[in-house]
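Same chain as my last thread, 698 residues:
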Amino acid sequence: MKKLLGTLFLIIVLSETFLTSKVFAEATFVDSFDVSSQEIIPLGLAFNTDGTKMFVAGGNGDDVNEYTLSTGFDISTASFVDSFDVSSEDLYPSGLTFNNDGTKMFVLGSIGDDVNEYTLSTGFDVSTASFVDSFDVSSQETTPSGLDFNNDGTKMFVVGGNGDDVNEYKLSTGFDVSTASFVDSFDLSSQDAFPTGIDFNTDGTKMFVVGYYGKDVNEYKLSTGFDVSTAVFVDSYDVSSEDDKPREVAFNTDGTKMFVLETNDDKVSEYTLSCAYGVTSSSTCDDPSTIKEVRGLIDAQIETAKNFAKDSSASAFKRLSILRAEKHDGSTSQNIDINFQNLALAQLADVMPVSTSGKLNPLQKIIPDDWATWSEGSVSFGKIGETNLSSAQDMTSLGISIGADKKVNENKLLGVVLRVGNNDVDVGTYGSSVDTNAISLSLYGSNSLNEDQFLDHIIGVSLLNSDIVRKNSGNTNTQTGDRDGKQIFSSLKFSREFEYNDMNITPKGRMDGSFTHLNAYTEIGNEAIKYNDQDIVSLMTSLGMMIDGDISLENSIVKSRVNLEYGKDFASSSKVVTRYTSDSYTTYSYQANKQDRDILTAGFGFDFTHIQGLTISADYQKQKIISEGSIDTLLLAASFVSKRETEYAMTLEGTDDFAVGLNVAKNINGFNFTIESNYTLMSEIPEYGGNLKISSKF
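reply #2:
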């Protein structure tokens, strides 16, 4: 019986240890930086957003000392820059923090028992600081020693050694201490009788308080972010082996590094954390969706999938609009020879060489003569701004569409289009990115309901492959992954034309829908995250108007157009499920991309056609996503087939440094002569070159 009980006890212990444990290794000491040359009683610590600047306030010099770090959040690269005297406001500054862009600095005064506010004309440059105002906290704390704000500055927190608590204040105007009023306090005396420093994780669901007497960092969990009344003690982490008299704690942007200011040896100690804000042995890693880089990468993948489906439809709709302008005569063929550094796009470009056959589009080699062919290239670039939850996204998208269509009868046209694209999204400021190659095949058509009413329709499928890189602040810890996906999409557009003088006015309504399935993938690297299969549903409607008209010149025609559109992304959703690879039993999930979005689009363009065979087409479009950001798109197409059997094609190439060029091809007695030239557009040091190719078939 005793043996059986012993076995059961062992099983229970093992189960608790390996099955239900959420233990992630404690903080690990890395290095320290001595500040004694500037301050021998360091009390306050802060960093700028990317960790390239560090600030230390002290009670001996009565100033704020500024340091630069050549590598963000790596204190071994720190060097002193300058200091700012605060003695006119307080002779013992004990806490320090900034607003988000560094244009406001807040210094806690231990003698005046107040929070002193300064403005900085240059963000995070203390030499440009000037005093504004102060807020008295003596009614709550007469030995204030630690200061922090929530993300938008509408809450302020002060800890102190007299009340042994953290005091919460609300500010009616963010980061304006003159609007502060006391709300509540949370007692810390059970953990330490002299709390001296305070910091939070990104969403305020974790609070960290330095215990001066306990020589530790105490962790608390808040069921409501930044509401200290909901705080519950979790555990503490002993720093006495490195920091005998700890005063302040700070974290890097993603919580993978912790910094402790120590006032005995006058130093800043750096620690690494195995996962974001995982300080103590009882810490659980943050929900990945609360990590801004992770959220930004997820958002980037969702937007990439949605945009590729929309771009695939847009190229076919553009073709139908041009044909309609040409009264469906089937004679319009837009051609553009586009070369890309990206392998997938380059492979497509390789099958689209300039030739003397007069057929730039490879589909012309395999389709019947009664089908018209076309091709188009596009470049899009845009930015989605940073939020409290997600990092900013800088997007660049390149694409080629090649298609063919046939007029079935006077009221019906059918076609097929192949699109290959590359979308590169830079996320945040540390080097995270999503690089996606995609290919789609679509069937499209147009039905004339009567002479001036049209119904355009598209249905297609896509394959996507993304290379994903996640980098934490300070360029430490890099996680990489590869993710595949597949997609089905459809679009429907109704339009009606009205003629007014020499213009056509076309009101239109459009609906776009797509369903994307992204396969599960697991990151490679420290703090790696596994992402489950993910489905992305998108439904968008839009209303708009296009105005176009013809200008006839002596030997050419210019067709100009203006497009205005309002769109509503009203039924988009995607459930994201993740877990850390170090914990197989805890999963995290949230609904991404759930909010409705209003999108305004404005664009203009033209088609220039010369009697000698030159065709140039260009369109510019700006899409404004309300409260998020904007996307700019440039579409270019050009071709020229001369009567002397010499063919010219404009080229557009590149990923980061775009280049334009001109290719000239001519067949002489069975030999193909091709001259290629190019010139970079966006490089700091422009590059140009030329090639001569001679070939023949035997």
